[in-house]
Amino acid sequence: MCNTCNVLVCTSCVAGKHNKHEFSKLVDAIAQLRGENEKQIYDKINEANQNITEIEDSLTSFDNDVESVIQAVTDQSNMIKCMVDKGVAQMIALVNSQSTKEKDKIMKSLSAAKSVLVAGQNIDRKRLDLDKTRPDETMVQKVNKMKEKIIKLHIDPLPEFPKISFNSKAVTEDDISKLIGSHTLR
Which of 8-12, 42-46, 143-147, 175-179 has the lowest mean pLDDT? Predict the structure, then answer.
């Protein structure tokens, strides 16, 4: 294997086009490529797993925050029963609507992260199957193609996770909209 040109060469070609190039045995070249592929795929799988964990943790936290906001709205509405029933229903619907939209965005990120993980695991299975085959002249091509697939695995950066909170307002009898606090979703 000519390391300089990254091609297989026979012993008679060594003195010609590949004079003063660095050479290695085919088995060594394949072993090196396998090692590189294994490290890269494990790195990508680990990163995908970390992203999934962070996204899932964020979803749980976001769900808890949404529940806290809904509870705060409900608690305050109980103090002013008749006047705010309609406002509470509207606010909860708005919180649920907005949080559903935000959660859908996060779920898309989670789905994409899981797709990368599955793709990485599929490549890893193919790598393991290839490791079990006998080295031959096509193996370098297969290993290089696998390397290209690994490089093409794109791990999206983590999205900005939404946060939701509740801001209570002072209670006055003039304006029903002022009786119930507001929430912010960013």
Answer: 175-179
What is the pTM assigned to this prediction? 0.49
Torsion-angle region of 136 (φ positive above 0: left; ψ -120 to 50: alpha; else: beta): beta
Phi, psi of 183 (to 5 degrees): -120, 160
Q: Look at 178 and 47; give whichever has higher pLDDT.
A: 47
Q: Which residue has the tokens 């590189």?
A: 36
The residue length of the chain stands at: 186
CA 128/CA 95 separation, integer angstroms:
48
Residues 169/179, Cβ–Cβ less than 8 Å: yes
Domain ranges of the chain: 26-185
Write phi, then psi, for 14 (nearest 5 degrees): -60, -40
Please report where in the chains the tokens 């026979």 appear, as a residue. 10
Tokens of 176: 């029903």
Selection from 119, 106, 146 nearest residue 130 by Cα: 146
Per-residue pLDDT at 9: 76
Helix 81-131 to helix 139-152 angle, to the nearest 10 degrees?
170
